[in-house]
Design goal:
With 197 residues, the chain is of the alpha+beta class. The protein is built from five helices and eleven strands; from the N terminus they run βββαββββαβββαβαα. It folds into two domains: 2-52; 55-192, OB fold (Dihydrolipoamide Acetyltransferase, E2P). The protein is 38% helix and 27% strand. Helix 3 runs parallel beside helix 4 (159-175).
């Protein structure tokens, strides 16, 4: 089709010059095409956000690596290494590292878990909130005093989780539960920094 330049009504005509669509239809078709193009642009711009939106991963825990990392086996026998979101537990060689791992094992070992996730860390691990029977395991680690609230990444949490985790960490510290029995408890990020020196 070509535009009939002689027509001041901008009617669409075919190659033989016969009118195909009236002026009204041409305007409506153009409007529909513009509307569709706008929708496509919005959808294309939204794709990165949709890919980063929360997903749910489910499976049975087959290994507890430490106080903030587990391995689950999902449908199809696919293994996923999961880093618990919002907390940082003592490393295995730190004081309370073994106790933290044992506490996490009591919650998840051999159990079916649900992981609410929206990212992977630089090591390729799935980072997420881990639930067992609807209960937040990350929060349980904090409440027992076997992890720190990982404030460096707190903006990745919902506002309510961020507040609950901060409150649970403070309550455990005030009650001297778990690692907070040690007045010289060293956060894992400080432990790593000291080892790098």
């Amino acid at each position: 089709m070509r535009r009939d330049e002689a027509s001041d009504r901008s009617c669409c005509v075919n190659d033989k010059g016969a009118s195909v669509i009236t002026t009204l239809c041409c305007g409506a078709r153009r409007g529909i095409i513009i509307h569709i193009m706008r929708l496509l642009i919005v959808l294309l711009l939204a794709l990165p956000f949709a890919a980063a939106s929360a997903a749910t991963l489910t499976g049975r825990t087959v290994r507890v690596t430490d106080g903030d990392t587990i391995v689950i086996l999902s449908e199809g026998n696919v293994q996923h290494k999961i880093r618990l979101q919002g907390i940082d537990a003592p490393e295995r060689r730190q004081a309370y590292g073994t106790k933290s791992k044992e506490h996490l094992s009591e919650w998840v070992a051999g159990r079916f878990v649900v992981v609410e996730t929206d990212k992977r860390d630089r090591y390729g691990r799935v980072v997420g909130k881990v639930l067992v029977g609807g209960k937040d395991v990350c929060l349980a680690q904090l409440m027992a005093g076997f992890a720190w609230h990982y404030k460096k990444y707190q903006n990745e949490q919902t506002a309510s989780d961020r507040q609950q985790y901060a409150d649970a960490g403070k309550e455990a510290r005030d009650a001297k539960r778990g690692l907070w029995q040690d007045p010289q408890a060293i956060a894992p990020w400080d432990y790593h920094a000291a080892r790098r020196k």
